[in-house]
Amino acid sequence: MPSMANITVKKHDGTTDSIWTAQTAAAADTGPAVWRKDDVASDVPIGLRPTFTLRSKDNGPRTARQLIVSGFYPNAYLDASGVQYVAPDSMVFSGILTLPKNVPPATSQEAVQFFNLLASALIKSCVDVGYAPT
């Protein structure tokens, strides 16, 4: 099994690194591994920082493993008085990848393309505007 570690990804500009700091490793099967984006303003409260989680478990009949991902990215900013951070709106991401146990490793390794698709320029532009391509 992979060991818990920080994750470095590129920001929207494609050149600037963003570090998602390892917070909690999955304690057991079905327990979440949790990362938090701490490279934000140091005075942003922890509860208003972006988070990403990954859980794994067997499907119902135990014929496949499932990876369940979720992300929470709040729109945190200082209120009108400039004293307190607020986050009236947040972006939420979730998904499930089902990996049948009888699929050869070469095939499951190629399934990583799903995640690379999410990082493609076309999908990023869809996220920018909130619409699928037409």
Model description:
The protein has three helices and eight strands, in the order E-E-E-E-E-E-E-E-H-H-H. The chain has helices spanning 105-110, 113-118, 121-129; strands at 7-10, 17-24, 33-37, 51-58, 64-74, 77-78, 85-86, 90-100. The chain has a six-stranded antiparallel β-sheet, with no helix packed on it. It has a two-stranded antiparallel sheet with strand order 6-7. It starts with 6 loop residues before the first strand and ends in a 5-residue tail after the last helix.
CATH class: Alpha Beta
How many H/I helices?
3
N-C termini distance: 40 Å
Low-pLDDT sequence parts: none
Strand elements, count: 8
* Beta-strand residue fraction: 35-45%
Note the main sheet: 6 strands, antiparallel
Instruction: Note the overall shape.
Output: globular
Q: Considering the protein shown, what is the CATH homologous superfamily?
A: MS2 Viral Coat Protein
- How many separate domains? 1
Write down the secondary-structure element order: EEEEEEEEHHH
Q: Rg from C-alpha positions?
A: 17 Å
**Multimeric status of the protein:** single chain
DSSP helix fraction: 10-25%
Helix-and-strand structural type: alpha+beta
| Strand line-up of the largest beta sheet | 1-2-3-4-5-8
The overall pLDDT average reads: 93
CATH architectural label: 2-Layer Sandwich
Please name the CATH topology.
Answer: MS2 Viral Coat Protein
